[in-house]
Task: inverse folding
């Protein structure tokens, strides 16, 4: 039971044979690239190749905390995430893999007047859009998480349809199903150069091979910055080292993901029973010198201590529980908090799908669909207009989202 | 609950302390015993039920490395039984036994499900998938939340010694003797129960060094004696000497996870601590001189892994099935070649080489393994692949002497 | 009781599961760790990572001169939130 022939379940490999040419080449085997590849395979006849420089789940898709929420502060983002969560409900069956999507809700705690105002504003927006967010007092929040210390909590917001997932199987599931539908997924193969070739682009690969593609999608998250820099594409996103940790496995006690607005602490409990937690940390000093900022993934004691200090205040019973593992992943931060999606300035056949500022994983199921519809059928979407890469150069970039946690 | 009544140990000192297991007891144990050894004396070897296949598990390495000795102690979950000293009246609980009835019906998972790829298990239809996920969530996780928060805040000790020595096994003790005579500020840390002591060194027992953070230039450790809130240590050493030893891997034999299968090296160490010998019926599985010597000291037969077909038992090991027949046992001691403890050296920036069993730290002729960055790191003994006690001690003396010269020169 | 041979006892990973994952094309230590969960339990791979490397070398899937363990993430010993909270910021 549960086991079927291995060949039927392959999900990319280092020796997958590459064609000489394809319609769409996607650089980056993270969730964004693979969701797009899968949706292209389902909805079009385009030939698709995905190139991953390491193994699947080696990047940010394998390093995030797995939170999925519709509690954003901007109506467009709420709508997008409502769609993403709707997809997640039956995605395990579509992708034929367990995603451990559990809708335990997101519980936001506000301890300041400013935080309270944000939650009240959000609740109004959410109500208009049909998202079931409820405002709660501290005492009511205790009914959802009895172990919380709610003194000083002015207001809480709870949306029972938000939830948590186990990130890795999303990537494998999209990869497996895309591959079954003819997408070539080549791992351990980096793109070393991109040059014009007739109507399309030629990709030179680290293996010495090359492939020509009508259009290329840069879906490499924070690594897009370095790749764009090499190609002379100027975009303002930058990498941000975000740390996270998980605890020893505990019997289930925590249903929602809890987020403390004032400190940026967030924590949830995975299906395996681990507390997974992170917190907003001051940014690393800016990169000096030429070239793109490097992606740093070091762990620190300072993160553990800062996070623990807040966690034991918010939930004192955690004081004698133990951290088992910590790691870091790169946020791909866009200066206005909005993603950067669409044709690159100066290189229109080279699409960007980056700058998701820590929300890429949860948005990917919806983004994969709208981007595939655009690539395959030229379908417009209001988010694509909002996310267009040219907004920075033409001065129309505006910040609209303030619910960025961690 | 099995209580053989008869003791598995022969002790020099009588058992005078009483502990409770899953509400029963008191069980008399030795005052210096670890929780694991005290329970083992009474034939209790099961600590947790595994999350996926719902199999009984017990302590294996007996030195706090392996992760399956986790029990609930006085209201705190996931305490390492092998690194915790007994206290009179201590209440110990096995973990993740969802249903206390015997036999536990969730154990049917093991009986009826073969090799499980949990990623593809019961994915469809959705309603079944959701039910499976709900059940799976209940079966995972070891301990439940603590009964109460810690009794007060933890302390934080900050220091910047000339030398940090980690480990008090044969290599660490030999190194400490060499370093003890110097004028340097030396901090010596070991996570075992018995505090290391040496003249001229600051010693911290029951203290686990848990990370080398190159970004911050610090080493971090925690002291936990089980009675007070643990103390955090932030250490900024100039030199670090790693004598962190090696760990017993498992031996890939069918049912190698049964409670009652323990590592010979850990068992011998536990017995030596309290001056006890083994009275239980035991078989050593291993080959070579180390395994033979362990068998002699445990009064056991030694059998090569290649002659063992499988291990048998339901919630504890009961039989060793060999190519020559079946042997009844109470305990099985695995004596594999130990694997160097590679994680701290790797975090500190050392290079590692695979030696067929584990990853030994690569050093220069003097014993240095990290020369660039905030500290110089040295390695000696098993961690560097020197696997005999005497050899590790000699190696550590040599490395400590070189370290001393370097530390005094650059002071 | 079925006869299972365990590579990782913390996360219930058997030899048969490793073979299954290898059949899916996962041959690197980091990939096998993620797919099977090996080394992600309470011991964080202290007991199993050497055994996995030996197995991959024996099958010709890893080169004994080059094989490395998966990243040794801190903490190498479990550490309590309460103790970590004792440090001030940026100490």
Result:
């Amino acid at each position: 039971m549960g086991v079927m022939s291995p060949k039927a379940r392959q999900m990319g490999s280092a020796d997958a044979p590459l064609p000489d040419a394809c319609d769409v080449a996607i650089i980056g085997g993270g969730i964004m690239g693979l969701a797009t590849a899968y949706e292209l395979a389902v909805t079009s006849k385009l030939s698709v190749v995905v190139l991953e420089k390491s193994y699947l789940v080696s990047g940010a898709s394998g390093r995030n905390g797995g939170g999925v929420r519709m509690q954003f502060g901007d109506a467009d983002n709420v709508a997008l995430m409502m769609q993403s969560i709707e997809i997640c409900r039956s995605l395990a069956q579509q992708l034929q893999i367990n995603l451990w999507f559990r809708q335990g809700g997101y519980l936001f705690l506000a301890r300041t007047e400013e935080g309270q105002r944000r939650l009240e504003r959000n609740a109004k927006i959410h109500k208009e859009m049909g998202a079931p967010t409820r405002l709660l007092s501290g005492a009511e929040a205790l009914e959802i998480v009895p172990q919380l210390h709610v003194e000083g909590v002015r207001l809480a917001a709870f949306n029972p349809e938000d939830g948590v997932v186990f990130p890795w199987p999303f990537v494998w599931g999209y990869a497996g199903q895309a591959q079954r539908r003819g997408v070539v997924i080549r791992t351990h193969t980096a793109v070393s150069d991109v040059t014009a070739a007739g109507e399309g682009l030629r990709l030179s690969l680290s293996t010495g091979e090359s492939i020509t593609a009508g259009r290329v999608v840069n879906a490499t998250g924070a690594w897009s910055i370095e790749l764009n820099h090499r190609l002379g594409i100027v975009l303002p996103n930058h990498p941000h080292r975000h740390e996270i940790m998980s605890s020893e496995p505990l019997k289930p006690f925590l249903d929602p993901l809890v987020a403390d607005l004032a400190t940026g602490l967030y924590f949830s409990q995975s299906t395996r029973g681990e507390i997974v937690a992170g917190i907003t940390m001051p940014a690393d000093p800016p990169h000096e010198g030429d070239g793109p900022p490097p992606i740093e993934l070091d762990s620190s004691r300072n993160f553990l201590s800062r996070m623990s200090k807040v966690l034991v205040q918010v939930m004192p019973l955690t004081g004698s529980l133990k951290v088992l593992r910590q790691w870091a992943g790169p946020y791909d931060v866009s200066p206005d908090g909005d993603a950067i999606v669409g044709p690159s300035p100066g290189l229109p056949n080279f699409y960007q799908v980056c700058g998701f500022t820590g929300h890429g994983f949860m948005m990917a199921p919806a983004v994969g669909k709208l981007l595939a519809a655009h690539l395959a059928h030229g379908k417009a979407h209001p988010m694509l207009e909002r996310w267009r890469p040219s907004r920075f150069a033409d001065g129309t970039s505006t910040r609209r989202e303030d619910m960025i946690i961690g | 609950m099995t209580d053989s009544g008869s003791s598995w140990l022969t002790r020099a000192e009588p058992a005078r302390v009483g502990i409770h297991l899953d509400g029963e007891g008191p069980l008399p144990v030795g005052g210096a015993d670890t929780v694991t050894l005290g329970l083992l004396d009474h034939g209790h070897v099961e600590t947790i039920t595994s999350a996926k296949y719902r199999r009984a598990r017990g302590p294996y390495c007996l030195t706090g490395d392996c992760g399956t000795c986790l029990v609930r102690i006085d209201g705190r979950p996931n305490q390492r039984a092998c690194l915790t000293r007994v206290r009179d009246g201590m209440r110990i609980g096995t973990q993740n036994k969802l249903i206390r009835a015997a036999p536990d019906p969730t154990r049917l998972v093991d009986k009826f499900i073969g090799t499980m790829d949990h990623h593809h298990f019961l994915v469809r239809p959705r309603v079944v998938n959701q039910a499976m996920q709900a059940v799976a969530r209940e079966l995972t996780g070891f301990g439940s939340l603590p009964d109460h928060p810690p009794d007060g805040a933890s302390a934080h000790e900050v220091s910047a010694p000339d030398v940090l020595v980690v480990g008090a096994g044969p290599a660490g003790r030999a190194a400490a003797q060499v370093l003890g005579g110097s004028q340097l500020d030396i901090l010596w840390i070991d996570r075992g129960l018995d505090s290391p002591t040496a003249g001229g060194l600051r010693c911290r027992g029951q203290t686990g060094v848990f990370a080398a953070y190159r970004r911050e230039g610090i080493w971090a450790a925690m002291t936990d004696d089980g009675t007070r809130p643990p103390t955090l240590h932030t250490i900024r050493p100039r030199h670090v000497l790693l004598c962190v030893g090696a760990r017993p891997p498992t031996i890939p034999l069918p049912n190698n996870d049964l409670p009652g299968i323990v590592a010979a090296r850990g068992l011998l160490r536990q017995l030596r601590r309290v001056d006890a010998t083994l009275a239980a019926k035991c078989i050593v599985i291993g080959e070579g001189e180390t395994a033979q010597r362990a068998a002699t000291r445990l009064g056991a037969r030694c059998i090569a892994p290649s002659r063992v077909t499988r291990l048998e038992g339901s919630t504890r090991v009961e039989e060793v099935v060999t190519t020559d027949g079946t042997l009844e046992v109470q305990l099985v001691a695995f004596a594999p070649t130990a694997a160097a403890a590679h994680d701290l050296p790797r975090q500190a920036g050392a290079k590692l080489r695979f030696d067929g069993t584990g990853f030994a730290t690569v050093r220069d002729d003097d014993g240095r393994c990290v020369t660039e960055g905030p500290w110089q790191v040295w390695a000696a003994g098993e961690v560097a692949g020197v696997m005999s006690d005497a050899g590790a001690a000699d190696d550590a003396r040599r490395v400590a002497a070189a370290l001393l010269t370097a530390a005094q020169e650059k002071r | 009781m079925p006869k299972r041979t365990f590579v990782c006892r913390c996360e219930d990973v058997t030899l048969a599961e490793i073979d299954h994952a290898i059949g899916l094309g996962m041959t690197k230590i980091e990939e096998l760790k993620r797919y099977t969960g090996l080394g992600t339990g309470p011991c964080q791979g202290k007991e199993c990572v050497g055994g996995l490397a030996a197995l991959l070398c024996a099958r010709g899937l890893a080169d004994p001169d080059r094989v490395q363990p998966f990243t040794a993430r801190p903490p190498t010993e479990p550490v309590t939130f309460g103790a970590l909270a004792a440090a001030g910021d940026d100490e």
